[in-house]
Target: N5-carboxyaminoimidazole ribonucleotide synthase
Amino acid sequence: MKSFYGDLKLGILGGGQLGRMLIQESINFNITTHVLDPDADAPCKDLCNKFVKGSLTDYQTVYEFGKGVDLITIEIEKVNVDALEQLENEGVLVYPQSRVIRLIQDKGVQKQFFKENDIPSSRFQLIQNRTELKNVEFSLPFIQKLRKDGYDGRGVHPVRSTADLDAAFDAPSLIEDWVDFEKELAVIVSRNEDGEIKTFPCVEMEFNPEANLVEFLISPSTLPEEILKKADELAVKIAQDLKIVGVLAVELFLTKDGEILVNELAPRPHNSGHQTIEGNYTSQYEQHLRAIFNLPLGDTRSISNAVMINLLGEKGFEGPAEYEGLNNILKIDGVYVHLYGKKLTKPFRKMGHVTILDDDREKAIEKAKFVQTTIKVKI
Amino acid sequence: MKSFYGDLKLGILGGGQLGRMLIQESINFNITTHVLDPDADAPCKDLCNKFVKGSLTDYQTVYEFGKGVDLITIEIEKVNVDALEQLENEGVLVYPQSRVIRLIQDKGVQKQFFKENDIPSSRFQLIQNRTELKNVEFSLPFIQKLRKDGYDGRGVHPVRSTADLDAAFDAPSLIEDWVDFEKELAVIVSRNEDGEIKTFPCVEMEFNPEANLVEFLISPSTLPEEILKKADELAVKIAQDLKIVGVLAVELFLTKDGEILVNELAPRPHNSGHQTIEGNYTSQYEQHLRAIFNLPLGDTRSISNAVMINLLGEKGFEGPAEYEGLNNILKIDGVYVHLYGKKLTKPFRKMGHVTILDDDREKAIEKAKFVQTTIKVKI
Model:
């Protein structure tokens, strides 16, 4: 492999906020970055050495983009995997491997992988279309998920009653048990080419019971040691079973019976690891670079309790974004703002995130609540 | 002032490593960056929204560059201040103010400012040329410094014996007592437009006598509380006296008698504050942005003991840089590498820095010594 003097070209498929934060870290290693994204105004546009506007799912576009770099990585799964496979055959490094992306792209195949490898996950069944939905052996309520292209909550259809059946997706899907979970957890694991594996401490998502939405993420989790150990071991096992190179986000459910079930995987830096930038000795972005360039993995320990809040576009506002309350939240010690460089806001669009550090966990949560009610993305 | 949605244009005079690290932070605030630098391959070149190749000392170039932005800052003092003053008159924000840059650019005026404001500093005398050097009322050894344009050790001439007089600068200079110091210290202080002032904890430095560059910096200093308090109060006083907006590095001598003398000022992020990126709750780069955009200043406390090492080009090597030993140092927990994106190395060129964190100060120093002997910038 070429060395780090600036001629080492990393291609990133996707130019969103995850790519943006990856580039912020890649600067420290003199990595030249090329980015492919269909949006001419993608958050990475002005930060990379070369920006290519183009489709992530078109074979020829991805192939040609890949021929110009030494190593390709992704910040979104929805990419043309056939092109990546061809690039691998021609000697371009692709991390995570095309094989891993292909497996994770299809939620049905992902579930089969869990089953074959004794990875605990909710019961499931695969269907081809809406007609088959009527014959599934699941009692209400259950979940329908599109096998492909779901993202950020899209492609998920909760079936609470027979009335919900009509609005179901008429496409190859996955039917899953409705898991009555106690908490949602996540473990970010990383593996480099040498096979070194490291996990970040398990994090918890705090729900707003009223809105039934993830309100914030708390790092590290304070659940009993045996649960955390189980979550950690599962993440390591999955990274080993997949032989992935890169970081992998493992989203988990802790059920009301104290069982740990794997929900979904993401073979890239993930929303549930943003707080590692300030809250851990190594960030998930640096760790991803270390993994894909086969460098020794970094120290994943937490520096402090951290709470992460997504900055979503306020309901009812669509247009050039303004950040109300920024000044007030920056008055508080341990508040870190990350804006994603998106000019236009719309309801629930991820416009940025805020991480709050405090040695006292309760104080961190209290500060996070203040931040949440103070900063608003409007126009 | 415009708000943070990406249309707020920050102009940076200078495109070196300080600008590069400032841009890494400015990404978090959606700040659009324009950079002016005479070097077409400057470290900031590919990271800013707009790069202008041009002279930093030419009136017209700086003026025209400044007309295209909302706020101008510097990462090097050697810039055309007349142009900045004109831009200020025309309503462009310039932080630090042209007045402050002008004062600090001239080491003679800087010394007079210290004298007028009762800021302890070594005894000095101003001369116009080499001829006047023979008549100075200083006993050997003493120091001759060019009043203008000294940088990174250049422009400093130690006069140890009469033999050194012939090689003295024949230009307006400052003659200073040779301070027999115990330690070199630095305090980074910041002040925003509202007049809020915060200091980072005082750091201690070790110099490479051959290169006359900081080789080894330890944060925070463990000197007696009364000395640290004196250093801190001095930095606050200087920021107040100057009414500077931005960060200001205050370089200090601790004499063998336990006296604190101000050596020099730098009105910008500084080499003695690199370790704040990982070692403090707020980095000097974020603090500079907060100060110049008149945001509340961030928490400056240390997270951990930190040691910073400059990665200098190895003696005897000139050409495209390679980083030997990178893999070995990344194996150690708490090691953070920052490469500056300079393609060509030459002896003592600042090619990057490494920060080492460890809760145990002695261990941090030990790790730093290992890093120092392990990583080499060669070709």
Q: What stands out?
A: Chain B touches chain A through 41 residues (CB under 8 Å). Residues 9-94 of chain B form a domain with the Rossmann fold fold (CATH 3.40.50.20).
